[in-house]
Amino acid sequence: MARTKIALVGSGMIGGTLAHLAAMKEMGDVVLFDIAEGMPAGKALDLSQAGPVEGFDANLKGTSDYADIAGADVVIVTAGVPRKPGMSRDDLLGINLKVMKAVGEGIKNNCPDAFVICITNPLDAMVWALREFSGLPHNKVVGMAGVLDSARFRHFLATEFDVSMEDVTAFVLGGHGDTMVPILEYSTVAGIPVPDLIKMGWSTQEKMDAIVKRTRGGGGEIVGLLGNGSAYYAPATAAIQMAESYLKDKKRVLPCAAHLTGQYGVDGLYVGVPVVIGANGVERIVEIALDDEAQKGFQVSVDAVNELLDACKGLDSSLA
Ligand code: A3D
């Protein structure tokens, strides 16, 4: 029986971390693809040499040839450029759109049956463009953002409540950006909703508002601290969780950028919503009731994604 094959398109900071995690978890063989000559092969060799120490068996290969991703079961796309201090995710649009075209064609020609997870920013527009360029079914192309945004939210909540991260669930909807919508009513500690915890005196609404604000700016905070590049450990961990849910048919309920066809009143866009990921990719969109404030916040987010798509269509006529 052939081992599962995981192709990482883009072998920079997130790509390298993805390869490390996939190898350590023995998820399968790993192909690191990048346009940078030599670098993916160097990372693959370095990681392979961690195998004897850590005790994992995985073939790791670095390449700049799309033929090497042939037959991949999962493709995780980080190809492109990350943000520099002062840049918004949207500033990346023009450069990364061209990259998505090349990557989409590489996937279409070599592994059209793969489950594809896009991480490249601006996320909601890039995952849409990648799907268009690759021509894969919508349920097999998904964007990673919500798992990361909710992990940031969970981390801040767990720290505030002084409880285990494991016991905190959190809920973030909408586009990946400053318009994302963290929802306190659906965020819990061991099933107890945050508004009830406020009533129990565990925290205050002011502190929760500050956490929501910090979650929205979570990526920018790290960009500012690093001084060069953007977050990579947590983004890689989040994408691996999505890949595992697909490969093991776990049917995890995870917030992802998924293609909506009328749910939440949105048609034809990729926006962050809770979905079930199993062996058939995105198997279900979970549509929850939103109160007026959340609905308004979600709409602002959808409008921002729509603007990005219009910009993409202006830049590449094949998308119009
Ligand atoms: P980085 O370390 O620069 O890696 C990107 C890699 O892509 C580099 O090694 C490039 O050589 C490579 N590359 C560029 N063009 C191509 C191409 N045409 N084909 C193949 N490879 C190419 O960046 P990173 O790993 O830190 O981040 C990657 C992307 O993820 C960026 O767009 C970030 O903005 C984005 N990101 C998204 C999130 C989300 O939550 C959605 C979080 C963090 C970063």
Q: Topology, please?
A:
Layout: E1 5-9, H1 13-24, E2 29-33, H2 39-48, H3 51-54, E3 60-63, E4 74-77, H4 93-110, E5 115-118, H5 123-134, E6 141-143, H6 146-161, E7 168-169, E8 172-173, E9 181-182, E10 188-189, E11 192-193, H7 194-199, H8 205-216, H9 218-226, H10 233-247, E12 252-261, E13 267-278, E14 281-285, H11 292-315
Parallel strand pairs: 1-2, 1-4, 2-3, 4-5, 5-6
Antiparallel strand pairs: 7-10, 8-9, 10-11, 12-13, 13-14
Bound molecules: 3-acetylpyridine adenine dinucleotide.
Binding site for substrate: 83, 89, 121, 152
Binding site for NAD(+): 10-15, 34, 96, 119-121
Function: Catalyzes the reversible oxidation of malate to oxaloacetate.
Provide tags for this entry.
320 residues, alpha/beta, L-2-Hydroxyisocaproate Dehydrogenase, Chain A, domain 2, 2 domains, three-stranded antiparallel β-sheet, 11 helices, 14 strands, globular, binds 3-acetylpyridine adenine dinucleotide
Fold and architecture overview:
With 320 residues, this protein is α/β, with parallel strands linked by helices. The protein has two domains: 5-144, Rossmann fold (3-Layer(aba) Sandwich), CATH 3.40.50.720; 146-312, L-2-Hydroxyisocaproate Dehydrogenase, Chain A, domain 2 (Alpha-Beta Complex). It is built from eleven helices and 14 strands. The strands form four sheets. The protein has a six-stranded parallel beta sheet. A three-stranded antiparallel beta sheet has the order 7-10-11. Strands 12-13-14 form a three-stranded antiparallel beta sheet. A hairpin with a 2-residue loop joins strand 10 and strand 11 (192-193). Helix 1 crosses helix 10, helix 4 (93-110) runs parallel beside helix 5 (123-134) and helix 5 (123-134) packs across helix 11 (292-315). The longest helix has 24 residues, at 292-315. The chain is globular. The N and C termini lie far apart (43 Å). The model has no long low-confidence stretch (mean pLDDT 95). It binds 3-acetylpyridine adenine dinucleotide (A3D).
